[in-house]
Amino acid sequence: MAVPASSQWHAVQESSNRSGVLSSPFWGSIRTYLQLPRTCQVHSSSRICGNLSHVSIYPIVAAVSTKTPPSTASIHSPTEVHALPTILVAEKLGEGGLELLRKVANVDCSYNLTPEDLCSKVSLCDALIVRSGTKVTREVFEASKGRLKVVGRAGVGIDNVDLHAATEFGCLVVNAPTANTIAAAEHGIALLAAMARNVSQANAALKDGKWLRNKYTGVSLTGKTLGIMGFGKVGSEVARRAKGLGMTVIAHDPYASVDRAHAIGVELVPFDEALARSDFLSLHMPLTPSTNKMFNAQTFAKCKKGVRIINVARGGVIDEGDLVLALDSGIVAQAALDVFTEEPPKPDNNLVSHEKVIVTPHLGASTVEAQEGVAIEIAEAVVGALQGELAATAVNAPMVPQEVLNELTPYVVLAEKLGRLAIQLVAGSGVKNVKVSYTSARADDDLDTRLLRAMITKGLIEPISSAYINLVNADFIAKQRGMKITEERQLLDGSPEVPLETIEVSIAHVESKFATALSDSGEITLEGKVKDGVPHLSKVGSFDVDISLEGNVVLCRQVDQPGMIGSVGNILGEENINISFMSVGRIAPRRKAVMAIGVDDEPTETALKRIASIPAVEEMVYLKL
Ligand SMILES: NC(=O)c1ccc[n+]([C@@H]2O[C@H](COP(=O)([O-])OP(=O)(O)OC[C@H]3O[C@@H](n4cnc5c(N)ncnc54)[C@H](O)[C@@H]3O)[C@@H](O)[C@H]2O)c1
Ligand SMILES: O=C(O)[C@H](O)COP(=O)(O)O
């Protein structure tokens, strides 16, 4: 059959199964975000997305994928097909949060686990919820063997979670950043006032029968300068309250907005100036490698003599040994500490027992109200993540709003398929340079491609490794394998109604099993687009084609002559292989052409050999999706 020069010949048969599990954005997004292994089906006995009690995530017994996190395969047996996910709650969580979790999961509340117990339990869990008392170490992720998909930190600080390991293992970490802000700020103010008036010491003395009115004369707050170190959520709430107490409030925070500070009457100042001017310093930065022990002998030396320090942030931001010396020498007059480098501190900790120090056992977030709020905030985040939503409080993954995700879903599928096809065209190994080009009528800031890049990476790497890749770890794994993935965009004229026109994946400096896939510049190049919500392959090398990316793909380069489609079609028909789509792209009539054939079934070796031996077929490759 001759093919019209300007068009492709479409179509033998369209797949009728487009409305299955994956086509719904909701169910699709479950897979997309957590990238549940393809051996896992997401089923619902109800189509009401809000009612998760009907959702189950389980492995298909007859696996179609070679990639399954090992524990998933070993834990679920066919008899557990409708099992709910399991969430381990390793520290006390408010009842409201537990109720939410119990609606969608088996909830195992096991507190005070040893590190060994945590490691052994975690291999049976899909999510883990902790507060600051549980160290979620690399060993925990290793022990989970890929089953753990989400760690929920019921609070703000995530310094007890090994984020690098979480990312490497593709485990999402979410926190509950807002619900305990006020509680922490109120505790900061409580410590400020208690320290200034020696409340703790006087209380202890009086209970010990000592009426020491002179000894416990305090200092006033009004008119004094409070330096807020870390002007984030807690810091700014402390600032508001301190202003109400008549204090002058200054703050140091390299990342805070001057306008936000001015709006509540706070002057942002450099670090050394904050130290030099403050009568009281209240610490509110996170513990990171750069804030670790940032309050040490050198910094105390820059402080106003007799400064008083409150710490409701993290013990590790202070060098505790240096603080003891500064208290002994009078550089620091008093300290009020809620947090410690080691929690609980050792009984002989001489900072805790110091007479100029008052302490509380990490109580900043411990109000009834805050704990209920945190529990609900983290339960919603964990449930959302298990549903595949891109959590607004994700700590180690890009946050993509649900609307954006819904819109991008078919492009996400396309991206993974293009990566998967492109890597199969490489002869040998050593893919180092991959370029992804997007054409779109949307401005750069209106098109979030992180998810697409992650899925292309997944498609490129999974077929050639044992790595298990999702949005969380895609960049990490690509980097680890020395694969550089660059992106470029071409802005098109026209309506920005659809997010993307085309996605092109090209792999440079490699040989191809199918030379026709090499572009004029010698790179393996595939282009795809989304048509009616379905991903299509639209270009192979320099040849335009058009097949829907469902099933698997046979690519042939042949001499463009009558009867080619019939010959290939006949062979596949005789071998009982269903063709879903067929398209021929060519440069000019009777010259070279590329035939792309979508097949529902896997062709036998014999069928492929028969196609390859058609005299006009010059090269052929079979690609699995
Ligand atoms: N004691 C408790 O129970 C309790 C309760 C809640 C929060 N916290 C801790 O309080 C701290 C603040 O929490 P948040 O919710 O306000 O966090 P946040 O992220 O809203 O604020 C932290 C601020 O610190 C700033 N910062 C970072 N590095 C800094 C540096 N080197 N110098 C100065 N500022 C720096 C950031 O820019 C940010 O504005 C965290 O350490 C958190 O873990 C403790
Ligand atoms: O970072 C936080 O949110 C606080 O330190 C609270 O920690 P907690 O949940 O262990 O009380």
From TrEMBL:
GO terms for molecular function: NAD binding; phosphoglycerate dehydrogenase activity. Residues 553-625 form the ACT domain. GO terms for cellular component: chloroplast. It catalyses: (2R)-3-phosphoglycerate + NAD(+) = 3-phosphooxypyruvate + NADH + H(+). Transmembrane segments: none annotated. Gene3D superfamilies: 3.30.70.260, D-3-phosphoglycerate dehydrogenase, domain 3 (3.30.1330.90), NAD(P)-binding Rossmann-like Domain (3.40.50.720). PROSITE patterns: ACT, D_2_HYDROXYACID_DH_1, D_2_HYDROXYACID_DH_2, D_2_HYDROXYACID_DH_3. InterPro entries: ACT-like_dom_sf, ACT_dom, ASB_dom_sf, D-isomer_2_OHA_DH_cat_dom, D-isomer_DH_CS, D-isomer_DH_CS1, D-isomer_DH_NAD-bd, NAD(P)-bd_dom_sf. Pathway: Amino-acid biosynthesis; L-serine biosynthesis; L-serine from 3-phospho-D-glycerate: step 1/3. Belongs to the D-isomer specific 2-hydroxyacid dehydrogenase family. PANTHER family: D-3-PHOSPHOGLYCERATE DEHYDROGENASE 3, CHLOROPLASTIC, FORMATE DEHYDROGENASE 1. This is D-3-phosphoglycerate dehydrogenase.
